[in-house]
Fold:
Amino acid sequence: MPTQSKEYYIRLNLVISAWICIALGSAIIISSGGSPFSFALASPLSLGGIIMLLLGLNMPSEKSVDANIISSWIPDASLLPDAGRPMYRIDTTLKEPIRTSVLCGRCSNITWIDGTKPNSYVCSSCNIVLWVSEEE
Structure:
């Protein structure tokens, strides 16, 4: 499971607590038979649950990340195990400028290509064919 930020867990706990407060307040009102004490106990509990639910749902679900940090990201240059042929890793950016990084698993060389994944690629460091795509 990927790690989540502290804000994610605060939001999740707030929403779960809100639903519990609303459910407990409703259960007290329904099961009490209409006594004034149960209304005095359940009304603030339910209203507090509604307020907590609105606060939790209005909290941001993700922190925004600086675009410069995303654009300056590079993959780790690590060796990948051979699985009967050389392994490779391809990462392509989704936002402009679209760039593709190719990691050769045999020599851990990283090459950046402008645009999307090419139809074929030969590692410039170890001269091994990583892939050749046959067009249909």
User: Anything to note?
Assistant: The longest strand covers residues 99-104.
